[in-house]
Amino acid sequence: MEAKVEGKKEGRDELKQFISIVLRYKVTIGVCLLLGLLGSILYLYVLVKPAYQVSALIDTGYITDNDGKRQRFASVEELAQEIKDVFIESKKIVEEDAEKPRMRVTEVELVADSSGRGKLPYLRIEAQGKEREDAQKIANDVLAYIQEKNRLILQRHVKRIQDTITIINARIKSIKEVQIPYIDSKILQTDADIKESASLSQTQTLTTYLNQLQASLDGLQNQRTKLENETLLALEQDRLRHEAMLSEGAVQDAFFVPKANVDTKPTIKARKWLVFLLGLFSGGVVAGVIVFSREIISQIKKEGLD
């Protein structure tokens, strides 16, 4: 019982001693806490300049082939590597704007297309900029780079299709204006020869000649039918397929997915209240060290005087 009472008394004495020390060094403690708080403010608003990170999903665009299937302008794997070479390894954006060295593409990766539109792969890029506008600009620069590559490929694609259509039209024109009229003239001439020969007295030689004319007539008619129903029809269908490759919806340039939406966010989201608490804690630790040191020094001096 006496030990418990003695323990409580010692506890109260220690608390009084602690309060006495705090009151004695209140100025020192207050200054240390204030310095810690000022340090946290300096960290938040002066030293820390958060970089903004953009994560953009890009559909690199497509063209339609002769079978009506969509395909990328070029290999997305090769395009991803090229973007890495241009925007990461070469530090192209950094060189163009030396005042903003944190404008850079940090990651390029392929993403599977789950939209059902042909299962074409997407391209995801991640980049950093000192300001929100910088991060947005990097994403726009990458998209513009892809669109420029697409433009050059599309020019060749369109020219190839147009040249093919021109060749098909020339063949159709030749069949309609040259080959079929020529066959028709031969058919008329052969038919006239058959009628003229049929009016003559029949001989073995004449009969043989008539049979040859009839076979020639049948061959010409079959040739004309094949030109109209097979060759000409196939050419017209081929022309329609090539024209469809240039129709609306058959070609799509690169764009952000979803359109006109780039996810931009700071890479460092400083929790102000936590920084302030750390500042106060640091100030408290420094104050504790100073107060403890001064108390030790004061105790040593007192013992020396005694």
Characterise this structure.
The chain is rod-shaped and about 160 Å long. The two termini are 36 Å apart. Strands 1, 4, 5, 6 and 7 form a 5-stranded antiparallel beta sheet that branches. α2 (26-47) runs antiparallel to α7 and α5 (132-198) runs antiparallel to α6 (204-244). The model is unreliable at 90-102 (pLDDT under 50). The longest helix has 67 residues, at 132-198. The chain is built from 7 helices and 7 strands; from the N terminus they run ααβββααββααββα. With 306 residues, the chain is of the alpha+beta class.
Low-confidence parts: 90-102
Strand element count? 7
- Element-level helix/strand string: HHEEEHHEEHHEEH
> Which descriptor suits the 3D outline?
rod-shaped
End-to-end CA span: 36 Å
Question: Counting H and I runs of at least 4 residues, what is the number of helices?
Answer: 7
Radius of gyration over C-alpha positions, nearest whole angstrom: 44 Å
The residue-averaged pLDDT reads 76
Largest sheet: 5 strands, antiparallel
- The computed structural class is alpha+beta
Give helix % range. 55-70%
How much of the sequence lies in strands comes to: 5-15%
Show the helix and strand layout.
Blueprint lengths: L1 H23 L1 H22 L4 E8 L3 E2 L5 E2 L4 H14 L2 H5 L7 E8 L10 E8 L2 H67 L5 H41 L10 E2 L6 E4 L5 H34 L1
